[in-house]
Amino acid sequence: MNGVVPPRQRRSFQLDRRCYKGGREAGVIRQRQYGLERRSHVRLADLNARFPGLLDLVAAWSPEAP
Fold it and tell me: pTM to 2 decimals?
């Protein structure tokens, strides 16, 4: 591809950036830079305080059998 990123992949990268930005602004994720690497962590205590019971509900969920 001669170093050109196809538009589909470019949109995916931009979507990821917006999702992380929204999470940071909402206070539910924390990101730290380690050299060239950026690590994201879910702020469980803050998320549970804002949405009580949500984490338990997600952890207990299982897909329906066909």
Answer: 0.51
